[in-house]
Design brief:
Elements lengths: L5 E8 L3 H10 L6 E8 L3 H5 L4 E11 L1 H14 L9 E6 L23 E9 L3 H10 L6 E6 L16 E10 H14 L9 E7 L1 E3 L2 H9 L4
Helix pairs in contact: 4-5
């Protein structure tokens, strides 16, 4: 049984996640969950003709620390994450909480120097995900991924006898830690998340990344920052 220490995420083009999961199982992963989403393409021409969305799949795999490092190395090499539009991967530290843990000081902090990147999650009503991406880019983000979902905000005793579930957009933005605060604040301000019902935003630390724009630039230059 794997001791879960991180959640490994990879975002790839639609139709590729099953192949990535098979390779991950060869490395020792026991399974994973695939979500459907939309990426965003930065192109003035595509924006002009209204084709700025790319269909994506988000694969989430629970891993141990050692397996997580292997997945980044092997999957990045196998699926060419270092090349543009081939995919990205990132890992979020995970801790299984117990009753004893609730009495201790929280030991995973986004300010920890071990974490150079952050993942910003924003949940808003369907259709507002694009506004969230626009706000994030205005504050320096390279882009993001939108995952479709459902909320549960309609009371059970609603006048209508139908089960109505408000549709939601969950926006995932991975960025360097030094940009996270300005991006989060811009999203919060532009989407007016201080108003009830407009959405929520939270940030998680990222312990490892593959295929991000910054990493590709560093590899081309032959060094790291």
């Amino acid at each position: 049984m794997i001791k879960i220490e991180t959640l490994f995420f990879t975002i790839v083009n639609r139709g590729k996640a099953n192949a990535v999961l098979r390779k991950a199982k060869e490395c020792g992963a026991t399974g994973g969950t695939i979500l459907l989403g939309e990426g965003t393409v930065q192109s003035k021409l595509l924006d002009f003709i209204g084709m700025t969305e790319a269909h994506k799949e988000i694969l989430m795999i629970p891993t141990s620390g050692g397996l997580d490092n292997n997945l980044h190395d092997i999957l990045s090499d196998t699926f060419n994450f270092s090349k543009r539009n081939k995919g990205i991967a990132f890992s979020v530290p995970f801790k299984r909480w117990t009753k004893e843990d609730s009495e201790k000081e929280h030991n995973i902090s986004i300010d920890d120097d071990r974490f150079t990147h952050c993942c910003i999650f924003t949940i808003v009503d369907k259709g507002r995900g694009k506004d969230c991406i626009k706000a994030a880019r205005a504050a320096g983000a390279r882009g993001g991924t939108i995952v479709r979902g459902h909320g549960a905000g309609v009371p059970a005793d609603s006048y209508y006898p139908l089960a109505i579930e408000p549709q939601k957009d969950t926006v995932i933005v991975v960025t360097r830690k030094n940009k996270a605060a300005s991006i989060r604040e811009r999203i919060f301000s532009d989407l007016e998340l201080d108003k009830p019902g407009n959405g929520i935003i939270f940030t998680l630390p990222v312990s490892n990344t593959s295929g991000l724009y910054e990493k590709r630039a560093e590899e081309r230059e032959g060094g790291t920052t």
